[in-house]
Specification:
The complex is a heterodimer of chains A (181) and B (627). Chain A is built from five helices and no strands. Chain A has 181 residues and is mainly α. Chain A has a single domain, classed as Four Helix Bundle (Hemerythrin (Met), subunit A), CATH 1.20.120.80. In chain A, helix 3 packs antiparallel against helix 4. Chain B is mostly helical and 627 residues long. Chain B has two domains: 64 residues, no CATH class; 460 residues, Cytochrome C Oxidase, Chain A. Helix content of chain B is 66%, strand content 1%. Chain B is built from 19 helices and two strands. Chain B has a two-stranded antiparallel ribbon. In chain B, 53% of the residues are buried. Classes of the chains: A mainly alpha (181), B mainly alpha (627). At the A-B interface, helix 1 and helix 4 of A face helix 9, helix 10 and helix 11 of B.
Chain lengths: 181, 627
C-alpha cells in the first residue's frame, strides 16, 4: 500500500544524528566562550601530565571504537566485542582520570578558573559517562548476537557520538591545560 | 486489528486511560528517591550532610524525569529495545490514546494543542490578576513579592506557549500531511518531545511551594542565584523544555528534508512548511544556550561555582549574553510559524497566488541567518561596552529587511484579491495589522538613544505583546479556525467566531495601544505599583484587558460546542489546494489512502492553465479528494 517517497532508513537516521551533533556543538561552544569571557587566557596550576595522559587515553579509545565498528561492518563479531570492551575500559579510565584531577585540584570551584574548569570537564565527562553506559548496553546486545554486518546502525551511531566526545575534548584540553596569558 | 485493540481496551473501563500517567508518576517518585539516595551516599562518603535541597533535588529530578518518561510508555515502545527485547507497538485507539505515549503525529499534535491552550488560558488568568492589581496605583490584591512571582509565572507560561504551540501542535499535526508523508521521520522522538512537557508544567507549579521565583521569565543573574529555591525548579524546568524543543526541531528538519512526497520540490513546499523549516533550525541550535544559561545558574547555586559572582571575578553580564543568544532568536521561533500561517491563509482566502513566494522564502531564511546577530539590543542599558552598541543597532535595523519581505508578500497577496472574509481570514488580516504596529514600535527599542529612555517602561511591554500576542496569538487563532474542520471533522460556528474576533481585536488594541502612552509617561514594567497620575490610562487598559479575557470565553465555548455538535465538515471546505485538504477530515491513520504525487504549485489560484497541485497515483482520478 505504501509507495511514498520513503528514503533509506539509514539516510534519515544519519541526518538526524548529524543535526544532533550540530546542536551539541552549540552547547560546548557556549561553555568554551564563557571560559574566555570570564578568565581570558589565564589558567591556574593544573596537572598537565595527567591531562595529557587522559587525552591520550581518550584518543586511543576513539581508535578502538573505530576498530569495533569496522569489525561489525565486516561481520567479525569477536573483533567487534573485543574492541568495544577495550573502548569501554578506556572510557572508564578517562573518567577515573577526571575524578583524580577533581580530587587533587589546587583551585576551588568558586575561583574563576575553577568555575570554567569544573563546568567544562564536568559537562564533557557526563557525555563520556553516557557514552560508556550506551556502549555497555551495546556490548550486552552484541553478546546476544544482536548486531550483524547488515544491521548495526546502533553501533555506528554510538561510535560517531564517541568521536564527537573525542573532538570536543581535543578543543577543551588546550584551552583548559595549555593556553597561557 | 484496530477493532480488536479497541475491544481489548474497553474491558478496563475509562479509568484505564490514566494508567500510563499514574505509572509515570510512580516511576518518577522512585527515580527521585534513587537520585536523592545516590547524592546522599556520595555526600556522606565525603563527610557532609545527606540532604541539601539544591543538589539532592536536581540529581533526584534527573532520575525522576527518566522514570516518568519510561513509566508513561517509553519503556514499552523504546526502552525494551535497549535490552534486546521486542517493543510493544499496540496501544489504545480510542480517546485513551490522547493520554498515552503514542507515535501518531496527529495525536501528538492534538496533545500539544490541548495542553498549551490550557496553559495559555491559565497564564491569561494571571494577566487578569495583574490587571486587578493595577485597579489602584498602590495595588489592590498582591503584595510586592507576590506580584513579582505572579508576573514571572505569567511570563514564563506565555513564553512556553509561544515556543511550543505552533510548532508542537500545527507543526506536528499538519506538516507531515502538507508534505505528503505518513508520519514524521522519528515518531518515537516526537512522542518523547511531547512527554517532556508535563514535567515542565509540574515543576513550575510545584516551585510555588518552594517560594516560587521572582526574577521574571528572563531569570537574570545575580538575582536568580540568590532568590528562593523555587528558582532551582525553574532552571530544571527550562532545561527539560529546551530538550523537548531541540528534539522537536531536529525531527521537523529531518522530516522536511527526507520525507517529502514525489514531486514535492523545495519550490512547491507550502509556505507554512518553509516557516517551520527556518524555525526548527533556531530551536535545534540556539536552545542549547538557554540550557547553558540555566545550567550556569544551577551550578552557581548548588555547586559553588562563580559564573555570576562578581566578588569572585564572575560577571552577571555573561548571563545576559548567553541568555539572549538564545532568547532573541527564540522570538523568531514564536513569530515565523505565525507569519507562515498568515501567508497561507491570506493566499487561500484571497483566491490569489501567494505574491513573491520566493522572496517570502528568502525572508524566512534571511531571518534565520540574521537571528543570532542582534541579541545585544536587549542589553543596551545594562552596561555592555560602548563599542558594541552601534553594530547591534545596525544589525537590528537590518533584520527588519527580511521581515519586511514577508510583510510585503502579505500585502501583495491581498492586493486586488477577492477577499473571502471568513474567521481565519479576519484573524490573518488582524495579524498583519498588529504586527505592523509591533514592528514599527520596535524601531525605537533598536535605536540606542530612544531605547535608553524607553527600556524597562511599558513601551517594551506593549511592543512585545503587539508582536507576540498581536502577531503570534492572532495567527494562532487563524490557524485554529482554519484547520479546525480538518482536525475535528466538524465546522466551527461562523457567527460566534466573528463575535470572538471582533471582541478580541478591539480589546487587544484597546489594551496594548494605551500601554505605549503609559510607557512614554513613565510607567515602569515589572513593578507592583505605579504613579497615581497614570490611573486613568490604567483603568482603560484594565477594562479592555478584562474584555480581552472575556473574548476567549466565546472562543472556548465555540470550540467546545462545535467539537460535539458542529456541522460535519467536508474534506475541503475552503477549496484550498494544499495537500492536507486533499484527504478526508479528519485524515486516516497514515494520512492518505493513496500516496500523493505533487504536480503543481500550492497557490496557483485563478491561474489559467495551472497544473493541479497533486495527483493520487495508482487509483487514477483525484483519489479521496472527490469522495
Amino acid at each position: 500500500m505504501t509507495v511514498h517517497a520513503e528514503p533509506r532508513r539509514e539516510t534519515v537516521n544519519r541526518l538526524g544524528l548529524w543535526l544532533f551533533f550540530c546542536s551539541e556543538f552549540f552547547l560546548f561552544a557556549a561553555l568554551f566562550a564563557a571560559r574566555f569571557y570570564l578568565a581570558g587566557p589565564y589558567h591556574a596550576k593544573v596537572n598537565q601530565p595527567l591531562g595529557l595522559a587522559i587525552t591520550l587515553v581518550l584518543l586511543v579509545s576513539g581508535f578502538t571504537a573505530y576498530r569495533a565498528e569496522a569489525g561489525i561492518r565486516r561481520g567479525d563479531r569477536s573483533a567487534f566485542l573485543r574492541n568495544l570492551l577495550v573502548t569501554i575500559l578506556l572510557g572508564l579510565v578517562f573518567l577515573a582520570g577526571v575524578g583524580v584531577e577533581w580530587a587533587t585540584a589546587e583551585f576551588a570551584p568558586s575561583s574563576i578558573f575553577g568555575t570554567a574548569f569544573f563546568t567544562m570537564t564536568g559537562v564533557h565527562a557526563s557525555h563520556v559517562l553516557s557514552g560508556v553506559v550506551a556502549f555497555a548496553l551495546a556490548y550486552r546486545l552484541g553478546l546476544r548476537g544482536h548486531f550483524s554486518a547488515e544491521r548495526h546502525w546502533g553501533v555506528e551511531a554510538l561510535v560517531k557520538y564517541w568521536y564527537l566526545i573525542d573532538v570536543v575534548w581535543v578543543f577543551f584540553f588546550p584551552v583548559l591545560y595549555l593556553v597561557r596569558a | 486489528m484496530v477493532t480488536r485493540a479497541v475491544e481489548q481496551q474497553s474491558h478496563g473501563g475509562p479509568w484505564t486511560a490514566f494508567l500510563p500517567l499514574v505509572r509515570g508518576l510512580v516511576w518518577a517518585m522512585i527515580g527521585f528517591a534513587v537520585g536523592a539516595a545516590l547524592t546522599a551516599v556520595v555526600r556522606i562518603a565525603g563527610g557532609r550532610s545527606a540532604w541539601t535541597f539544591g543538589l539532592s533535588f536536581s540529581v533526584g529530578y534527573v532520575f525522576a524525569l527518566l522514570g516518568w518518561l519510561l513509566g508513561v510508555g517509553m519503556w514499552e515502545r523504546w526502552g525494551r529495545e535497549w535490552f534486546g527485547r521486542p517493543t510493544v507497538e499496540e496501544g489504545p485507539t480510542d480517546w485513551r490514546r490522547y493520554l498515552a505515549f503514542t507515535t501518531d503525529h496527529k495525536v501528538i499534535g492534538i496533545q500539544y494543542l490541548a495542553t498549551f491552550v490550557v496553559v495559555f488560558l491559565l497564564a491569561g488568568l494571571l494577566a487578569m490578576l495583574i490587571r486587578i492589581q493595577y485597579l489602584t496605583p498602590g495595588g489592590t490584591v498582591l503584595d510586592n513579592a507576590t506580584y513579582n512571582r505572579v508576573m514571572s509565572m505569567h511570563g514564563i507560561l506565555m513564553i512556553a506557549v509561544a515556543v511550543a504551540i505552533f510548532v508542537g501542535s500545527f507543526g506536528n499535526y499538519l506538516l507531515p500531511i502538507m508534505i505528503g508523508a505518513r508520519d514524521v521521520a522519528f515518531p518515537r522522538l516526537n512522542a518523547l518531545s511531547y512527554w517532556l512537557v508535563p514535567p515542565v508544567a509540574i515543576l513550575l507549579f510545584v516551585s510555588q511551594a518552594f517560594g516560587g521565583w521572582d526574577s521574571g521569565w528572563t531569570a537574570y543573574a545575580p538575582l536568580s542565584v540568590r532568590n528562593a529555591p523555587g528558582q532551582i525548579l525553574f532552571c530544571l524546568a527550562i532545561i527539560t523544555f529546551g530538550l523537548s524543543s531541540i528534539v522537536g526541531g531536529l525531527n521537523f528538519l529531518v522530516t522536511i528534508i527526507t520525507m517529502r512526497a514525489h514531486g514535492m520540490t523545495w519550490g512547491r513546499l507550502p509556505i507554512f512548511v518553509w516557516s517551520i523549516f527556518a524555525t526548527s533550525w533556531i530551536a535545534l541550535l540556539f536552545t542549547q544556550f538557554f540550557a547553558a544559561a540555566m545550567l550556569m545558574v544551577l551550578l552557581d547555586r548548588i555547586a559553588g561555582t562563580s559564573f555570576f559572582a562578581a566578588s569572585n571575578g564572575g560577571s552577571a553580564i555573561l548571563y545576559q549574553h548567553v541568555f539572549w543568544f538564545y532568547s532573541h532568536p527564540a522570538v523568531y521561533i514564536f513569530i515565523m510559524p505565525a507569519l507562515g500561517v498568515t501567508l497561507e491563509v491570506l493566499s487561500h482566502f484571497s483566491r490569489k497566488p501567494l505574491f513573491a513566494y520566493r522572496w517570502a522564502v528568502g525572508g524566512f531564511l534571511g531571518i534565520l541567518a540574521m537571528s543570532a546577530l542582534v541579541w545585544v539590543h536587549h542589553m543596551f542599558v545594562t552596561g555592555v561596552p560602548y563599542k558594541l552598541e552601534a553594530p547591534f543597532l545596525i544589525t537590528t535595523e537590518i533584520i527588519s529587511i527580511p521581515t519586511g519581505l514577508i510583510f510585503l508578500t502579505a500585502l501583495g497577496t491581498i492586493w486586488q484579491g477577492r477577499l473571502w472574509l471568513r474567521v481565519p481570514m479576519l484573524f490573518a488580516l488582524a495579524e498583519v495589522f498588529n504586527f505592523l504596529i509591533g514592528g514599527i514600535t520596535g524601531i525605537f527599542l533598536a535605536d540606542v538613544p530612544t531605547d535608553a529612555m524607553l527600556h524597562n517602561s511599558y513601551w517594551v511591554v506593549a511592543h512585545f505583546h503587539y508582536t507576540i500576542m498581536g502577531g503570534e496569538i492572532f495567527a494562532l487563532m487563524a490557524a485554529i479556525y482554519y484547520w479546525f474542520p480538518k482536525m475535528t471533522g466538524r465546522m466551527y460556528s461562523e457567527r460566534v467566531g466573528r463575535l470572538h474576533f471582533a471582541l478580541m481585536f478591539i480589546a487587544f488594541n484597546g489594551t496594548f495601544l494605551p500601554m505605549f502612552w503609559a510607557g512614554v509617561h513613565g510607567m515602569n514594567r515589572r513593578i507592583a505599583t505605579y504613579v497615581p497620575s497614570l490611573q486613568g490610562v490604567n483603568d482603560l487598559i484594565s477594562a479592555m484587558g478584562f474584555l480581552l479575557g472575556i473574548s476567549f470565553l466565546f472562543f472556548v465555548a465555540n470550540m467546545a460546542y462545535s467539537l460535539v455538535r458542529g456541522r460535519k465538515a467536508v474534506a475541503n471546505p475552503w477549496g484550498a489546494r494544499t495537500l492536507e485538504w486533499q484527504t478526508s477530515s479528519p485524515p486516516p491513520v497514515e494520512n492518505f489512502l493513496v500516496p500523493p504525487v505533487v504536480t503543481g504549485h500550492p497557490y496557483d489560484y485563478g491561474v489559467p492553465g495551472a497544473a493541479p497541485y497533486a495527483a493520487f497515483a495508482p487509483a487514477g482520478g483525484s483519489g479521496e479528494a472527490s469522495s
